[in-house]
Automatic annotation (TrEMBL):
Span of domain Asparaginase/glutaminase C-terminal: 209-316
Protein name as it appears in the record: Asparaginase
Taxonomy, superkingdom: Bacteria
SMART domains per the UniProt record, alphabetical: Asparaginase
Species annotation: Pseudomonas fluorescens NCIMB 11764
InterPro entries named in the record: AsnASE_II, Asp/glu_Ase-like_sf, Asparaginase/glutaminase-like, Asparaginase_C, L-asparaginase_C, L-asparaginase_N, L-asparaginase_N_sf
Signal peptide: none
Annotated active site: 14
UniProt key word Hydrolase: yes
UniProt family annotation: Belongs to the asparaginase 1 family.
Family annotation (PANTHER family): 60 KDA LYSOPHOSPHOLIPASE, L-ASPARAGINASE
Gene3D superfamilies, A to Z: 3.40.50.40, L-asparaginase, N-terminal domain
Pfam families, per database record: Asparaginase (PF00710), Asparaginase_C (PF17763)
Length: 326
């Protein structure tokens, strides 16, 4: 039987972590080859090319490194892989998936997975997640769906997935729309068809800096006042409720928005910003009049990634056409 080709890249994260000595915290140590050995069943499903591209906690990943991983993944597709799986830490998994999804122009699936329990813990979920992710990457129905995250038996679209629990096995969810699919008795089952995606070109520059600030009760404007002087090229604000800020932030935002893009998202974790409901100073109608853009359903972290990419390919003028997508 001629098996399909599958590519796997290991970047590190909890899925690769063990403690070197008793009583010490776990750190990334397991290579991609070692992870592959934990799922022997996979050799009956595909011919696998596995590479260890990094051994680091996902909190230490950066855009430059992710661009190199993206290049590797696209090369695997050109070499004949029917899908690519990437393992990494869960802390930034939703952000990495979003970053790749804006740039992934292949019909073949790119699937990200990780673990909530280290390889040293009883009941480690890494092997099961890896096997599930590979099944998703190999499934014909996964084509033209862009980048997906597979965790705990569920399939999430990169545009919607968020980490909503710090330690639980069911840490990932897709607020409002729910998972795109799930694995049932080792079969990949989707609950909705693929949607049209708007792909960005690779950024022409990578030195741009996008600030992300969160509002809070009685927040001062010290950092906000210095955003321009600090050299930022864009600003995302995680606002109250449907996209609101304290009144003393409003005029400062107007000044900033005359120089760089300003996006207001909601810090709530679910739901959309508004456009035409609240008219008070610091409400969304006031902020829109002063030049800010509302993120819609995009969470603050995803909005920051989008803005970084748009500035990098000099398409920040197209920001509004992306913000209300999910």
């Amino acid at each position: 039987m001629d098996l399909p080709e599958l590519a796997i890249a290991a970047l590190g994260g909890t899925v690769s972590m063990q403690a070197r000595n008793a009583g010490e915290g776990v750190i990334p140590t397991l290579t991609g080859e070692t992870l592959l050995n934990s799922v022997p069943e996979l050799t009956t499903l595909a011919r696998v090319n596995v590479e260890t591209l990094g051994l680091m906690p996902s909190a230490s990943l950066d855009f430059e490194f992710l661009l190199s991983v993206l290049s590797w993944a696209k090369f695997q597709i050109k070499q004949g892989a029917v899908g690519v799986v990437i393992t990494q830490g869960s802390d930034t998994l939703e952000e990495t998936a979003t970053f790749f999804d804006y740039l992934w122009d292949c019909d073949e699936p790119l699937v990200l997975t990780g673990a909530m329990r280290s390889a040293a813990q009883a009941g480690a979920d890494g092997p099961a997640n890896l096997l599930d992710a590979c099944r998703v990457a190999l499934a014909a129905d996964s084509r033209r769906r862009g980048v997906q995250v597979v965790m705990n038996g569920q399939i999430h679209a990169a545009s919607a997935v968020r980490k909503t629990d710090s330690l639980a096995l069911q840490a990932f969810s897709s607020p409002i729309i729910g998972p795109a699919g799930m694995l049932i008795e080792n079969s990949v089952r989707y609950m909705r068809p693929p949607t049209q995606r708007n792909i960005l070109p690779l950024p022409q520059q990578t030195t741009q800096k996008i600030a992300l600030l969160e509002v809070s009760l009685s927040a001062d404007t010290l950092v906000l006042n210095n955003i321009l002087d600090l050299g930022y090229d864009g600003l995302v604000i995680a606002g109250f409720g449907a996209g609101h800020v304290p009144g003393n932030w409003s005029d400062v935002i107007e000044t900033i928005a005359q120089k760089i893009p300003v996006v207001i998202a909601t810090r709530t974790g679910s739901g959309s910003t508004a456009r035409s409901t609240y008219g008070f100073i610091g409400g969304e109608m006031d902020l829109i009049r002063k030049g800010a853009l509302m993120a819609g359903l995009l969470c603050p972290r995803k909005a920051r990634i989008l803005l970084w990419l748009l500035v990098g390919c000099q398409r920040q003028h197209q920001l509004t056409s992306y913000l209300w997508e999910i």
